[in-house]
Task: inverse folding
């Protein structure tokens, strides 16, 4: 995947093409003194730090694809032992798979995050010591960008490891031997950086396409949710609203409409440019396999939504279908796909759905096809669940004309902040405010809502996070931070298998046979040692005499 940033922020931040200063490491090209001598070159230096937003969004969450594959929401269909194939299932199966080194490689990213933090601290120090000729207002906003990034990077560390090593821009404090902080100290550090960012960054109208104050509040909303600092979460969401952020008119447009085209919901967006050869390959992994088979190629369908996820959606009029007729013996009754709510239609492709001017055929022998899990090691674009991902896949992408994808990705959006607020209000017994936030989310989807309280309200908040934020990389981490991931399914991630519908044609045209099938060959298992902390890498415990492995990982 080509992972260079071209447009980032509330409007746009063009970082030019591959021969720009951004593509060079400043130390290898010009001196630090020259790099920080004026605003223009200093911005290039800061851009190289801001570029970590893509790693935070798409690279570091998991080295093996979407983290939803560790839950009941998604399934990678290949039985070949590599990333975007069998390895995500090995994570979900847990048990003896989850050794210290395995978790470090596929989930941890301790070393990568600390490398990014070190570069960020160097940039902050250089701004202070070498950027004396940079006007005060410009220096303040650049420091705001760097403080936002450092707070965000440390948040990603703490959500994985809880107790981490804290370093600031005073590089003289760097030591081979340095003890872990407490979790509370870590959250204080993150909170201080994000508070500074909200004060230093300009509002969107004055940010000239660079990261603005809204991004700082959006990251604060997410980070403080993990910290359990509920009022800070509420305040951050309210601040976003005060800055003019709001839900898009409909759910699909929240992802399809760019910020430049007037999307009011996207706070931070990662965009791409074909002319600059700045592209990604998300579609190659997740587009329906028929997009490729039609032109005689192989691609798409590496991972697909599960039946469990499909059954999470309500009717468009509210209330859940009874799926039991499709759980027993094979049936020719069509599932109620067309009757499900708009977020389902915008997220999942199903048998008979319209896509790129054709009809999706995820059945045995269909254009998209069906692959039996573990019987056929390589699906080659066929689905193992009977579904394909629609959300964040580009329906306008003609792969016959070009391989590369350029659909933008929303990294932070107001819809998440609103649900963060709902949860924080629930935790503080602000029931009316929690209900208002849930109602706003559901109203956008056209769903009815009546005020709830207690466990019923919490169930509603959890339900809305599951469907509203589906495939945005949050559900796995939600279950961990709620400390329920080690419980039995459906509350947690233990003692269950995920399913799909095997679809076959019949002698009657247009009539299909649906069979409920497991697409796991063993039960999933989330061990308790994974609940709070991932293991510290051996490279750290071997070199740092003041750091010992967490007891649960010894």
Result:
């Amino acid at each position: 995947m080509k992972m260079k940033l071209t447009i980032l922020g509330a409007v746009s931040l063009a970082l030019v093409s591959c021969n720009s200063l951004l593509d060079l490491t400043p130390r290898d090209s010009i001196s630090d003194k020259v790099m920080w001598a004026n605003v223009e070159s200093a911005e290039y230096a800061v851009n190289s730090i801001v570029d970590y937003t893509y790693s935070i969004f798409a690279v570091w969450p998991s080295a093996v694809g979407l983290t939803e594959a560790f839950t009941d929401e998604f399934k990678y269909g290949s039985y070949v032992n590599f990333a975007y194939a069998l390895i995500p299932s090995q994570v979900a199966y847990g048990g003896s798979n989850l050794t210290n080194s395995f978790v470090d490689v596929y989930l941890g990213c301790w070393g990568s995050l600390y490398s990014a933090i070190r570069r960020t601290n160097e940039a902050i120090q250089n701004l202070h010591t070498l950027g004396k000729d940079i006007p005060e207002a410009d220096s303040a906003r650049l420091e705001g960008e760097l403080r936002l990034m450092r707070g965000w990077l440390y948040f990603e560390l703490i959500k994985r490891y809880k107790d981490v090593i804290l370093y600031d821009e005073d590089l003289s404090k760097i030591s081979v031997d340095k003890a872990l902080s407490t979790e509370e100290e870590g959250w204080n550090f993150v909170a201080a950086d994000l508070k500074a960012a909200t004060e230093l960054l300009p509002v969107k109208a004055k940010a000239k396409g660079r990261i603005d104050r809204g991004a700082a509040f959006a990251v604060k909303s997410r980070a403080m949710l993990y910290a359990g600092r509920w009022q800070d979460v509420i305040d951050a969401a309210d601040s976003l609203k005060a800055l003019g952020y709001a839900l898009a008119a409909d759910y699909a447009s929240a992802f399809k409409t760019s910020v430049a085209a007037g999307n009011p919901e996207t706070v931070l967006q990662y965009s791409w440019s074909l002319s600059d050869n700045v592209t990604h390959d998300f579609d190659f992994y997740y587009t329906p396999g028929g997009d490729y088979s039609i032109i005689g190629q192989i691609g798409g369908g590496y991972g697909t939504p599960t039946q469990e996820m499909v059954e999470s959606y309500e009717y468009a009029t509210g209330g859940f279908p009874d799926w039991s007729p499709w759980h027993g013996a094979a049936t020719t009754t069509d599932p109620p796909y067309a009757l499900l709510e708009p977020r389902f239609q915008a997220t999942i492709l199903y048998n008979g759905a319209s896509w790129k001017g054709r009809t999706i055929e995820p059945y045995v022998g269909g254009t998209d096809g069906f692959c039996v899990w573990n019987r056929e090691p390589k699906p080659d674009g066929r689905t193992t669940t009977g579904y394909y991902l629609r959300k964040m896949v580009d329906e306008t992408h003609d792969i016959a004309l070009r391989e590369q994808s350029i659909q933008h990705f929303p990294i932070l959006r107001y819809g998440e902040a609103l649900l963060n607020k709902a949860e924080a209000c629930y935790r503080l017994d602000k029931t009316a405010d929690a209900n208002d936030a849930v109602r706003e989310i559901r109203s956008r989807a056209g769903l009815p809502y009546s005020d709830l309280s207690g466990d019923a309200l919490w169930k509603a908040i959890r339900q809305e996070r599951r469907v509203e934020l589906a495939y945005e990389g949050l559900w796995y981490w939600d279950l961990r931070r709620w400390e329920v991931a080690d419980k039995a399914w459906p509350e947690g991630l233990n003692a269950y298998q995920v399913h799909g519908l095997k679809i076959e044609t019949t002698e009657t045209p247009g009539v299909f046979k649906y069979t409920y099938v497991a697409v796991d060959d063993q039960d999933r298992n989330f061990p308790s040692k994974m609940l709070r902390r991932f293991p510290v890498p051996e490279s750290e415990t071997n070199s740092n005499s003041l750091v010992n492995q967490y007891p649960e990982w010894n």
Remarks:
- Residues 1-28 have pLDDT under 50 and may be disordered.
- Residues 136-161 form the longest helix (26 residues).
- The longest strand covers residues 499-505.
